[in-house]
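Suppose a colleague, Dr. K., hands you the sequence of a protein chain of 396 amino acids and asks what its three-dimensional shape might be. Before reaching for any lab equipment, you can write down a predicted structure in token form. Begin with the sequence itself:
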Amino acid sequence: MTVGVVEHLEVVEVSVRKVRTGLLLAEVMHSVFEAAARRGESERGSSSTARVTEPVEQRPPGIVAPATLAASAHQAPSPVRQGGRGTRETAYHTCRSTLRPKRSASGNLRAALRPIRGKLRLMNGDDDSDLVFAGSIPEMYDRYLVPLIFQTYASDLAACVESLGSGSLLEVAAGTGAVTREMAARLPGTVRITATDLNQPMLDYAAALGTTRPVAWQQADVMDLPFDDDSFDAAVCQFGVMFFPDRPRAFAEICRVLRPGGVFVFNVWDRLDENEFIQTVSDALGTVFPDDPPLFAARVAHGYYDAEIIQADLAAGGFVSRARFEALEARSRAETCHVPAIGFCQGTPLRNAIEARDPARLEEATSAAAAAIAQRFGPTDIDGKMRAYVITVNKP
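The predicted structure, expressed as tokens, is then:
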């Protein structure tokens, strides 16, 4: 009798899952065709205010950032520069690939699928928790991590495109807008800035903080950018390419929307042991969850730093010209040990990893991280090393 009841319950459970799946698919398809219809109407009328794709009268010369790209493979790298933000070391690498052909403009249905495809990707699979910046994460990220580790590199990245005098600039993986705010303040009003991110909550937080001048905020998946070919003079990405599920494909999309000669500037973190605060936090979480340590930091955030791999991915995406790699080392400072502990444990996808193991242990994990930082750097006025690479490449 008990076996029969169990079998019956299993059948009911399977049926419920099938019904839920059917309802989800129906809702998705309904949204697809509604969006396609709306897009068709908008194309017959006025264009969307969120898109900045109209051509400019005259494209400015190719941007050089932060120093002129070498004209030949034999040119010596620029000397080491020292400044308040850190120390740079320059190296050159050669791209070997063929440029991916341009694709034709997307139809209504393909364009309508873009936002839905992105949302489904965020909901699909455990690894995609690495991509989710939602809930309280945007606030924690901006409050703790932007001043701790991101602001220094945001200022540097904005300086890399400061010579752009007019035209259109695309930012991907804009997050809460640290680089966006810097570029809005530095670049003239004749440069139209479009800031995008996969996570709408991050964009909402960035838009609420505001900028010194108008910026177009738009949710977009870098794997399928909703812009026409040759739409932008420059593209910028701060610490986002590590999260791209298919980097050559994402680079191909960025290359596609850039105009010939346009520049792509982005940065990535160096290996974990070159970034002391996050390494300490990561090690501490390993003691909290010894049987299943969260590996987000080493696997994702600090797992994409090899110059040859990055160069090969760029080449596969169509950036066949030589890329410039610069190491930028800086210092990360905070008033107390709790700042990096809260920032990393509650303001990044590390939080998703912690809560996936045990939602009730988030505070315990954060406290363990704070204790580890205090033991290594002291409880107050802490100072740690951080290191990243700044990569600049031009579209042929």
